[in-house]
């Protein structure tokens, strides 16, 4: 590395570090549930890490030595790790819809869901038979899939959005306290040229057996600051000593209800 580049090396590394901390890591929490993939941030990190860093200055590159380049890559890795959840989810953002808010028990359900709003998930409360306005704005320009138990009103939402669809509405089974199967296949509906909705069959059972233990833990977004900080590298956050996730829960950083939910799912994966 030539003297003029050597003298600038600390400043270059500091500049990359500043970008990662100010523009990437600071934005990561909000991006977890965003509708769009962070193309610009990822592209900027890719350009910083791959193009011209080791090319001699006489040929238009930065002419960095390997040590300085490694420090830059280390900083960029911090940025990519902070966006791991966004990148891995491949831009599928969750929107929780509480339907049938006109029913007496709706207020209890809404209070229960406030936990997820606090985690950054978007929450919409509505009555599909009265007003879909709160939901429509979230569907514009998106391809959305309705997922939920039978009888939760997915077909009513489709019929209200597109009356011509004439989807059969589920009856509620008093014995099962859930909807009987009416939508038996997945169907794509077009709201307009840029907005599409996929109606899926109602779920009777839900499983996560396609996930490994670490993937399940990473799916709980509030766990991420503590993952990798446990006493044991293979900690499953169930009953192991020195678990950073459990400690965070004890300190009120993580909801005990969410940790209990995670542990139940983790045990199901092991069954």
Features:
271 residues; Butyryl-Coa Dehydrogenase, subunit A, domain 1; 3 domains; two-stranded parallel sheet; Ribonucleotide Reductase Protein R1, domain 1; Rossmann fold; mainly alpha
Give a verbal description of the structure.
A 3-stranded mixed sheet has the order 3-7-6, with helices on one face. A two-stranded parallel sheet has the order 1-2. The chain has 11 helices and 7 strands. It is 44% helix and 10% strand. With 271 residues, it is mainly alpha-helical. It has helices spanning 3-25, 28-31, 39-50, 66-82, 84-88, 106-118, 133-139, 154-161, 213-219, 244-250, 256-270; strands spanning 95-98, 122-125, 143-146, 172-173, 178-179, 187-192, 195-199. The N and C termini lie far apart (57 Å). The protein folds into 3 domains: 3-88, Orthogonal Bundle (Butyryl-Coa Dehydrogenase, subunit A, domain 1), CATH 1.10.540; 95-199, Rossmann fold; 213-270, Ribonucleotide Reductase Protein R1, domain 1, CATH 1.10.40.50. Residues 169-181 have low confidence and may be disordered. The longest helix has 23 residues, at 3-25.
Q: What is the CATH architecture assignment of the largest domain?
A: 3-Layer(aba) Sandwich
Work out the strand percent: 5-15%
The main pleated sheet reads as: 3 strands, mixed
- Radius of gyration equals 24 Å
Helical element count? 11
Short description:
This protein has 271 residues and is mainly α. 44% of the residues lie in helices and 10% in strands. A hairpin with a 4-residue loop joins strand 4 and strand 5 (178-179).
């Amino acid at each position: 590395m030539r003297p003029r580049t050597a003298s600038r090396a600390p400043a270059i590394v500091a500049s990359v570090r500043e970008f990662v901390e100010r523009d990437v890591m600071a934005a990561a929490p909000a991006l977890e549930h965003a509708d769009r993939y962070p193309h610009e941030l990822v592209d900027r990190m890719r350009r910083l890490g791959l193009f011209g860093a080791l090319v001699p200055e006489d040929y238009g590159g930065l002419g960095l030595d390997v040590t300085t380049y490694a420090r830059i890559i280390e900083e960029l890795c911090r940025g990519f790790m902070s966006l791991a959840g966004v990148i891995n989810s491949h831009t599928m953002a969750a929107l929780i819809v509480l339907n049938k808010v006109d029913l007496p028990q709706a207020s209890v359900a809404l209070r229960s869901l406030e936990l997820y709003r606090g985690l950054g998930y978007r929450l919409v409360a509505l009555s599909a038979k009265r007003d879909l306005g709160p939901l429509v704005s979230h569907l514009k320009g998106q391809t959305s899939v309705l997922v939920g138990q039978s009888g939760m009103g997915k077909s009513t939402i489709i019929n209200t959005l597109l009356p011509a669809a004439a989807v059969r509405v589920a009856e509620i089974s008093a014995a099962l306290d859930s909807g009987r199967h009416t939508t038996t296949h997945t169907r794509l509906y077009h709201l307009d040229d840029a907005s599409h909705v996929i109606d899926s069959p109602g779920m009777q059972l839900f499983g996560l057996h396609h996930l490994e233990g670490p993937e399940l833990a990473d799916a709980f977004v509030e766990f991420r600051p503590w993952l990798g900080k446990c006493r044991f590298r293979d900690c499953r956050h169930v009953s192991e000593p020195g678990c950073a996730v459990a400690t965070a829960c004890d300190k009120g950083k993580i909801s005990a209800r969410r940790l209990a939910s995670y542990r139940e799912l983790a045990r199901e994966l092991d069954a």
